[in-house]
Specification:
It holds the Pfam family HbpS-like. This is Heme-binding protein. With about 150 residues, the protein is of the alpha+beta class. The chain has one domain (about 5-140): 2-Layer Sandwich (Beta-Lactamase), CATH 3.30.450.150. About 35% of the residues lie in helices and about 15% in strands. A four-stranded antiparallel beta sheet has the order 2-1-4-3. Helix 1 crosses helix 3 (about 120-140). The two termini are about 20 Å apart.
Length: about 150
C-alpha cells in the first residue's frame, strides 16, 4: 500500500501531464500534492499564466481534502444546492471547477492529488487526466516484490 506520492513519482506524473499540454499546445502549471493537500511538486511551463500557480495548487488541495475531482463540485455548489458557497470557505482554497483529481492507491485511499491550470477548464481536465492515467500505470510499481516459492 502506498502511503503518499513520492517526489520521484510526482515528477513522473508532471512529465506525463506536460507531454499532453505540449500536445495540445497550451502551457500549464501542474501541481501534485500528498494526501493532505500539501505540495510535493509543481511545474510552471514557459508561458503559463502566473495566476495558474495558485489555482493548480488549490485544485490539487481541493481534490485531496474532499477525495473527489473538482469538476464534481460545480453543480452541488450552485445557488440553492447543498454546497452553495463552498468555494468561499477554507480561506478561499477550494476550487469548484475542473482540473483537480485525487490519486487513489489500490485500496481506494487518497495518497495524493493532481491539479492543473492554464487553459480552458476542458484543457485543464485533459492535461490532468493524462497525469492521472500515468498514475494508474505506476502506482503498482510501488508495491513490494512477490516472494518466489
Amino acid at each position: 500500500m502506498v502511503q503518499s506520492v513520492t517526489l520521484d513519482t510526482a515528477k513522473e506524473l508532471i512529465d506525463a501531464a506536460e507531454r499532453k499540454a505540449e500536445e495540445i499546445d497550451n502551457p500549464m502549471v501542474i501541481a501534485v500534492t500528498n494526501s493532505e493537500g500539501n505540495l510535493v511538486a509543481q511545474r510552471r511551463m514557459d508561458g503559463a499564466w502566473l495566476a495558474s500557480v495558485s489555482i493548480s495548487r488549490n485544485k490539487a488541495y481541493t481534490s485531496a481534502a474532499l477525495d473527489m475531482p473538482t469538476h464534481e463540485l460545480a453543480e452541488p455548489s450552485e445557488p440553492g444546492n447543498s454546497l452553495y458557497g463552498l468555494q468561499s470557505t477554507d480561506e478561499g482554497r477550494l476550487v469548484i471547477f475542473g482540473g483537480g483529481y485525487p490519486l487513489f492507491d489500490e485500496d481506494g485511499e487518497v495518497v495524493g492529488a493532481f491539479g492543473v491550470s492554464g487553459g480552458a477548464v476542458e484543457q485543464d481536465m485533459e492535461v490532468a487526466e493524462a497525469g492521472v492515467a500515468h498514475w494508474e500505470t505506476v502506482r503498482g510499481d510501488e508495491e513490494p516484490p512477490e516472494v518466489a516459492h
